[in-house]
Structures are given as C-alpha cells and as structure tokens.
Write a structure and sequence with these properties.
It contains nine helices and 40 strands. With 629 residues, the chain is mainly beta. Among the domains are: 54 residues, no CATH class; 122 residues, Immunoglobulin-like (Sandwich). The chain binds (dicuprio-$l^{3}-sulfanyl)-sulfanyl-copper, dinuclear copper ion and calcium ion.
C-alpha cells in the first residue's frame, strides 16, 4: 500500500505531468497506489487514461440529470441537503431544526405547526438521514432524521422535500443513532438516546448509578411515541434487521462514566440486541410502566431481561450496520482495530438461551485503526472507514468468517487513502436489498489542504469513490459546510416529487381552516379581516403582483398575512418579505403560506417578493400602512 507522500515523491518526471497536475491526478485516481496496482509504474498514457476514466464517470453534463439523489445531514447546522450523485451538485436544502431566512422555516405559521408554536430551539444537530422502506426497499415516501442537540426526530416528505412532523422524545436526552424498521415496512422509527440521565431528572439526584437511558420507537405513520426500552450503559449507533424482529445498537459507555478516561476503562463494551416482537407483545399485554407525566409505555431491558441481549465487543464500538443480504450486524470497533460480525440468524437461539452471547460472533477481522462505519456493495464486500488511518478498507465478509474459523485468508481487498479522517461512508442503496455497489461516499471530517483556504474553519470533504469495479477509485472531492455526519443515496426513479402543490396539501390545512372560519376562500381572497387587535390579511399572488397592494393596520396589532400563490406554472415561486419586521417566506406554485407578526410603529412599511419570479419581480410589492393605535 503506497502512501500519498510516496506517490508524490515517485511522480515520474518523464511522465511530463507537472507536480500540481500530478497531485490532481492522485486525487482523481487515488486507487492507483493501492493494493492491486501497488508498485506498478504507470506510463503517462495509462495514467492519463485512468484520470480521464474517473472524470468521465463523475461528469454529468450541463442539462443532464444525476442518477441518484443523495440526502446529506447538515449536522449542527440543522438542515438536510439534497445532492445529485455522481455530480455532487447541491440541488436543494431542506430546513429542519434550523431557522431559514429564504423559505421562512421557523418564521411561518406552517413551519411552527411542525416545530411547535411554543418551540424555543433555534438550533439542531442532525446526524442520520434514513428513507422509509417497504419489504427492505426504499419506498421514497419519507426521510427521517435525528436531532441530537434537542432530543427530537423529524420526518421529511420527499414528494415536496419539506419537513412535515417533528417529535420530541420524552424522558431521555440526545437522540443519536436512528434507523427504520425495514421489514415488513417502516412501521417504527427506532432511535437511540445517547446520554444517561437520572429519573426523575429534577435535581433530587445526580448520581450516575441511578441514571439510565432508553431505546425509543416512534410510530412512523403518526410520529407519536410508540414505546421506550430502558437499557444498561449508553446507546450510540444502531440498525435494524431484514426480518422486522431485531435491531441492534452499540454502547461505548458500558462503564457509565462521566469522564473520558472512564469511558475507556473496559476492554469490551457491547452491542445490545433488541427483540422487537417481545417488546411489542409486552406493551400490548399492558406489561409496562410510565415515567413521570409521560404516557409512553416503558419496558425495562436491563440485566437479564427477555427484551435484550448484551453481546460483548471491543472497545467503544461506534457504527452498527446491517449487511444488505440481511445476514449480519457489523459493529465497528473504534478503539479496537476490528469489526465484530454478528450472525443474525443465531439471535433466535440467543434469545432462547440456547447459545452464549459471543457464539453469535462469526468474525472479528482486523482492519486498521479507528473503524467507525461500514457500508456494503451487495457483492459480499464491506467498506469500513478507518478514522485514524484516514483510509477506507474494503474487505470480504465471507473470507473474514473463514479466517475467524482458522482458515487463513486475505480478507482485506484494498485500502484507499481518503482525505482525511473519515467518519461515515455510504454506498449506493446499501441500506436496502437493492445495494448496487456503484458509488461510495466517504464523509471525511478534515479537508486540510484539499481546497482553497477559507480561514480557520475548514470545510469537510465528502469524497466520491467509484466501487463498481474490483478496485475503489477516488473520483471527486466535495467540500461541505458544517457538518454532514451521514448521507443516503437513492435512485432517482425511487422518488416522485411534485412540481406544484396540490391545493389540498396538508401543510396549509390550518390556514384553510382559519379562512373558512372567516368566510373566505383562499384561492380568491384579497381581504382584510379584523378580529379585535388581530388582523388577518388574505392575499393572492400571480407574477408579478400580489392581489393586495395596500392594507391598513394599527400599531401593535397582531397581523397575519396569508399569501396564496395562484401561479400554476412550474418554478414560479414568490416570496413575501415585510420590511423591518423580520418576516420572510416562500410561496411556491399553488401553495399557501402565512406569517404572523406585530405591526411596528406608525408609518409606511413596504412588502416585496423575495424569489425572482418575473421580469417585473422587482416591482412586485405593496405597502402596509400602520396607524396610531
Ligand atoms: S455518528 S462519525 Cu453521529 Cu453517525 Cu459516526
Ligand atoms: Cu414574485 Cu418575485
Ligand atoms: Ca467503553
């Protein structure tokens, strides 16, 4: 395995490539130095051909469409980003836990219907985006994502690419790992609360001994809590299986310590396996308790419970990934150079106490330093990120199992340098039965020297790797703003989006209900309704005009402006900004959006359209006349 520096210093003079170009070539065809071709001196021609090949693969020409949608978590920026793959072009941003000035997320009443009108959180920290499934295949309906910062889970409608539900998870802190039930369908959103807390958490007790955390299930259809399971230790990442019966989660803090050293004391922590069937049965039979004023059923999965098994694995494990053939849960060792492979069809016996905990482990391959996450190509290979080594390790699962059984094999197929310190990686369709082994995205936490410098805060580097052949080939560097943790790729034909809103879209159901009370039809209305000190201004928009270009209110009135965009032509979105009132929102074709604010000091305030909609977009506006109260 050649290191990047070796490659650089061995850049063949006679190749005629300049050093700068050579670095570029290294980036484009990083696999050249890896196992397989390792040591071979490339001719100028073959080198150029490799570069060209990589460029062709990733190039999506002007006007051409990508093959995959990629959904990237926005980390502590709180949003979800939509990219096209393989071009890695950013297509859209979906505000979720953040406030978005352009679309008015966090400002409009429709977004507050989702966030909660009493919501005070302006931030979020989303890590794990996952797409709803039917029989182990993406159904393209919803994407779910966690908020570690404020203990929430959001659902995004993929038909309009907007957040439609947010659930606050009670009795726990910091939702981290999140996965969906794959089979028979996504009935549950499973999510890990990472940190242990005392119960009740009211200041009467701060001790760690009396603290615990819980594994949570949300009903994916209603986004109501289904149940919670108390666990030993803490919970990090998780995945579900392809029978619908089991899910598994890593725990790095079996020590239940509050210090860094403390969490590293044990050589082994564990993977906790949940028996979803048994939990459901107990809840159904009323064998549960509730905590505090929450009504969510809680079962106790600690110790020798019938609901859980704690399989010891080394050490502070992190990612937990189910192979797309449904056979294995793979836990990534983080502080151990290994991955632990758990055979899922042994779990029935484990829960029936016919075998020992470690009997479920069928391989523990040594891969390199800092294994964090594993993904799959659907051809029996796994790809594990090595954070400390700054590499992706491709390894063969069947060979690793043979090796564990004493037959020496070269289960490591290739190690590819990535730049630098990768966290998650994700192969196309890898979380479903359709894993197609075409693309691998590696989310590298450090970009160091890979991009133009932009001050002390660096972008991350989401690298695209072609895994369609025997060898991994690095084909693209993609700078990303803080801080994608993970992404998910789905074929473009697996999602059907709307080009304009349906007039009965549920997102503006409450605007419609209010209009009906006021005797107003949203589609035709340009009227002002006064109701005490509340004023409701109903207006339409058709490019380049609002139906109402002037309205009067009094200082201190609570004003709600409802705009219904009557344009029905694709791509003609309008905006509504009330100057000096902190008001901004998007109104896309056939959408209704509304915003409530307090009228300022007497005088004239212009409002205007903020999304470029017409040659006369600049002229699209009106005046709010505020009178003395
Ligand atoms: S975690 S870098 Cu939040 Cu997904 Cu592993
Ligand atoms: Cu309407 Cu710009
Ligand atoms: Ca530990």
């Amino acid at each position: 395995m050649k290191k990047r520096e070796e490659l650089e210093s061995s850049a063949p003079e006679e190749s005629g490539l300049s050093r700068r170009k050579f670095l570029g070539a290294t980036a484009l065809a990083g696999a050249v130095g890896a196992t397989g071709l390792g040591g071979a001196v490339m001719t100028r021609e073959s080198w150029a051909a490799a570069v060209k090949d990589a460029q062709n693969k990733v190039h999506v020409g002007p006007g051409e469409l990508d093959e995959y949608y990629g959904f990237w978590s926005g980390g502590h920026q709180g949003e979800v980003r939509v990219l096209g793959v393989p071009s890695m072009r950013e297509l859209m941003r979906i505000p979720v836990f953040n406030v978005d000035s352009a679309t008015g997320w966090g400002i409009t009443n429709e977004s507050k219907d989702v966030l909660g009108h009493d919501n005070t959180y302006l931030n979020g920290d989303c890590h794990h985006p996952h797409i709803s499934m039917e029989d182990g295949r993406y159904d393209g309906k919803y994407l779910f994502i966690n908020d570690k910062a404020n203990t929430r889970v959001a659902r995004i409608r993929l038909d309009i690419m907007k957040t439609d539900k947010i659930t606050h998870i009670p009795n726990v802190q910091a939702i981290h790992g999140l996965r969906l039930q794959k089979v028979p369908r996504t009935k549950y959103v499973f999510c890990n609360a990472e940190f242990v807390i005392p119960h009740p958490n009211d200041g009467s007790d701060y001790s760690l001994e009396n603290s615990y955390t819980m594994w949570n299930a949300i009903d994916a259809d209603t986004m109501e809590m289904a149940w919670q399971v108390i666990v030993d230790g803490n919970l990090d990442n998780m995945d579900a299986d392809y029978t619908g019966k089991y899910a598994a989660s890593t725990c790095y803090n079996s020590e239940k310590s509050a210090t860094l050293e403390g969490t590293m004391r044990n050589d082994r922590d564990w993977v906790v396996v949940f028996n979803v069937e048994r939990i459901e049965a107990a809840v159904k039979a009323g064998k549960f308790k509730t905590i505090g004023d929450s009504e969510v059923p809680v079962v106790d999965g600690r110790g020798d419970s019938e609901f859980t098994r704690y399989i010891p694995v080394p050490k502070n494990p992190h990612g937990l990934n189910t192979s797309p053939d449904g056979k294995y849960f793979i836990a990534n060792g983080k502080l151990s150079p290994t991955c632990s492979v758990i055979q899922i069809d042994k779990l029935d016996d484990l829960f029936d106490d016919k075998i020992e905990l470690r009997d479920t482990i069928v391989a523990e391959p040594e891969l390199g330093l800092g294994p964090l996450h594993t993904t799959f190509d659907g051809r029996g290979n796994a790809y594990t990120t090595l954070f400390i080594d700054s590499q992706v390790c491709k390894w063969n699962i069947a060979d690793a199992i043979k090796d564990y059984n004493g037959e020496k094999t070269n289960y490591i197929r290739q190690k590819l340098d990535v730049h630098y310190q990768p966290g998650h990686n994700h192969a196309s369709l890898t979380e479903s039965r359709d894993a197609d082994g075409k693309w691998l995205v590696v989310l590298s936490k450090f970009s160091k020297d890979r991009f133009l410098p932009v001050g002390p805060l660096h972008p991350e580097n989401d690298q695209l790797i072609d895994i369609s052949g025997e060898e991994m080939k690095l084909v693209h560097d993609g700078p990303a703003f803080a801080e994608p943790h993970d992404c998910i790729l789905i074929r473009r034909d697996q999602i059907k989006t709307k080009k304009i809103y349906d007039r009965d879209d549920p997102s503006f159901a409450s605007a419609r209900a209010q209009a009906e009370k006021d005797g107003i039809t949203l589609e035709g209305a340009n009227e002002v309704v006064r109701d005490g000190n509340k004023v409701r201004v109903y207006m339409t928009s058709v490019a380049p005009q609002y139906g109402t270009t002037e309205f009067k209110v009094k200082e201190g009135d609570e004003v709600t402006v409802y705009v219904t965009n009557l344009d029905s032509i694709e791509d003609v979105s309008h905006g509504f900004v009330m100057v000096n009132h902190g008001v901004s929102m998007e109104i896309s074709p056939q959408q209704t959006a509304s915003v409530t604010f307090t009228a300022g000091k007497p005088g004239v305030y212009w409002y205007y359209c903020s999304w470029f909609c017409h040659a006369l977009h600049m002229e699209m506006g009106g005046r709010m006349l505020v009178e003395k109260a």
